[in-house]
Amino acid sequence: MAEEKKYKTGKAKKTLSVDVLKYVSKYYIEANRAKKKGSKPICYHTSLDPIEIDYAMGIIPMLPENFAAICGALQIAPDLIEVAEQRGCPSDLCSYFKNHFGYMEGGKDLPSMKDAFDMNLIVLPDPDIVCSLRNICRLHPIWMRQVARFYNVPAFTMDAPQLHPKTSLSKIDDHYIEFGVSQLKDYISFLEKHTGRKFDMERLSETVALSDRLSKIFEEIYELRKVTPCPVGGEDLNSLVFFLVTEAGSQEAVDVAQGILDEVKDKVRRREGALPEGTEEAHRVSFVGIPPWHDMATAFTYMQKYGATSVDEIYVRAFSGFAGRMDPSHPLESLVRKYFFIYPTTTEQALRLINIEDITGYGIDGFICWNLTTCRLISTLIARLKAMYDLFNIPYVTCDADQVDPRQYNVEQVRNRLDAFFENLEE
Amino acid sequence: MYVAGVDSGALTTKAVILGDGKVLSHEIVLTGMGGKAHEVVEMALSKADLSTDDLAFVVATGYGRINVPFAAKQVTEITCHGRGAHFLIPTTRMIIDVGGQDSKVIRLNEQGNVVDFAMNDKCAAGSGRFLEVMANALEIDLEEMGKLSLRSKKTVEISSTCTVFAESEVISHIASGIPKEDIIAGIHRAIASRVAGLFFSKVRRKVEQDSVVMTGGVAKNIGMIKSLEEEIGIRIIVPPKPQIVGALGAALIAQEECFM
Question: Which cofactors are required for activity (chain B) (predicted)?
Fold first, then answer.
């Protein structure tokens, strides 16, 4: 008989028919198969790296952050994090990192891993190379260096410039773009050298076109969420982020996303909302931050009793590109625009514009901000956003949680805050 | 028509009985294991010569509100403290509530409706629990802390905001021979600075005199009030029974429900 889980948290009720875990599982199985056969190299990445280059060169990108989110959703992350802490990681260090570090340092062989991963199917294959772009998190390149040392594989770090705070996304100086392109070219040389694979610009144009198509489909889904009732909730959008994070540049991601778009369109035609049948949509909220993967039920399903649904998530949109359409005829420049100029390398001004558009277009009544115990980057973003909400007198509530570690989480306190927030909205 | 409000808090459970808009009785008991909601309502009813059959509506609030089966409605303590404080002191615009488990700042409009609120993060610093731990370390009763702190001649610095670290700091101050009153004053200031941070995060315009009210059990601590007033720079009004403001607010909501 399976051992009872130490941490009892919940899964959200999904509103779309797509089984994301099936695709996640398939991705991991294929990666492990390729690793075993030696047919394709595995490159570890941190999130928001230009993985379209990997797809163009027949390299499989694997993201330990995505893996950590899965571990969080399956509620096995605490066991891995405990291993990391036994190896000396402090409790307030990024839990995504600790999840992976614990996995490397012996957690992979824990009995709970074997149970939770259903016959050991979702297993991170060992990397052949590692890469990180220094665009969002200062821990990212250090993380990948640790991985490189552990597996004794080559590592590559790309740098991203910090733009002047007043810089507009539509007016980025050429020298910034040129710098980004030079970083990508160096990365391509690194891949050619260590994998023996030849880079082909035409093939990159194709993967960039696929990536752009994927982003465009997601943008169409975001637009359809402006409709009342909102056809799809945040519980689904956050799961779909897998395709944006891990499969940007693949045909499969485009095909799955197209199916989802068709389903959403159909729901809009039928005026079918994300809320359970019979529940009227009373409140539309925006979800700010990485969700607590270990308790999506509290993050999203709990608000349904107030007739509330999450109609927008900044976190998801961060992965489909803020900087506009990609141009397959200029693939490297497009990748620079997509990956190099995002929060926090880009401007506060742009961030403000993005959020004001959210409020007016989506009919958002308030924001639910998730202050992540072990992610200071997100907390800094939330502090900026709160100042803006105050300025425009927009209601918001802050919940304290960790993205994968339920030990850093008080569900009663979070629910109490959500109750108070919705009572306040109703008043 | 009689109604009741029950505030099931982390440390104490409170009940207020209202009859025709007037407070007939109230009662406070330690929450302990298993909750004391039924018991405290019975006690308050007994004081008012009433029985449960006389109650037209019961509203529960506080962390344990979901475990009050005889309540017809559950409302958060944010809304209830707002309603209760405005009933007692109609000039209330800002409420500071330091409870056993957390601290809150609530902003009201002229009608007493909650406009905005902020709560401390999930650590115990800035809560009544912090005071309890420190009282234990100092081997004094919680109730003594306020008066003792007023005798302080030199407030010591408690630099840590973590309850466990602050306790060690207090123990080392005791070992150094620093008078208890100076340590307690330092403890009050440490909490006050945390709560003041929350307070100023919700201030939108000049804070008027007589608009800041403190509720919750910690409001009975005169030393805490003094420290908070120093931090926020304005007089704080404390209702005669600050612990029952949440239960009173719940009873007022129960009364409104009867007229709906």
Answer: [4Fe-4S] cluster
A142 CA: distance to closest CA in chain B (Å): 29
In a domain, residue B85? The reply is: no
Q: Which of A198, A218, A168 is nearest to A337 (CA)?
A: A168
Q: Across residues A200-218, what is the average pLDDT? A: 97
- Closest-CA distance of chain A to residue B251, Å: 17
Do residue A410 and residue B122 have CB atoms under 8 angstroms apart? yes
B76 and B113 part of one domain: no
From the candidates A400, A417, A424, A425, which should be mutated to test the interface with B, based on the most B CB atoms within 10 A?
A424
Q: B15 with B55, same domain?
A: yes
Q: For residue B3, give the nearest of B13, B14, B21 by alpha carbon.
A: B21
| Cβ atoms of B150 and B226 closer than 8 Å | yes
Q: What is the pLDDT of residue A2?
A: 45
Q: Is the ipTM of this complex over 0.85?
A: no
- A104 lies in a domain? yes
Cross-chain Cβ contact B121/A395 below 8 Å: no
The domain containing residue B32 runs over which residues?
2-80+244-259
Listed in sequence order, the residues at least 6 apart from A79 whose beta carbon sits closer than 8 Å to its beta carbon are A102, A107, A110, A112, A113
Give the chain B residue whose CA is nearest to the CA of A422: B76
In a domain, A133, yes or no: yes
Q: Within a domain: residue B86? A: no
Q: Which two tokens stand for residue B242?
A: 């600050």
Number of domains comprising chain B:
2
Mind telling me how many Å the CA of B28 is from chain A's nearest CA?
22
Report residue A323's pLDDT band, with 50, 70 and 90 as the boundaries.
Answer: low
Residue A11: per-residue pLDDT? 74
User: What is the C-alpha to C-alpha distance for residues A291 and A175, in angstroms, rounded to an integer?
Assistant: 36
Phi, psi dihedral angles at A116 (to 5 degrees): -65, -30
Q: Residue A419's closest chain B neighbor by CA?
A: B76
What tokens appear for A355 in the block? 């959020």
Say which CATH number the domain at B39 has.
3.30.420.40
Pair (B24, B139) in one structural domain: no
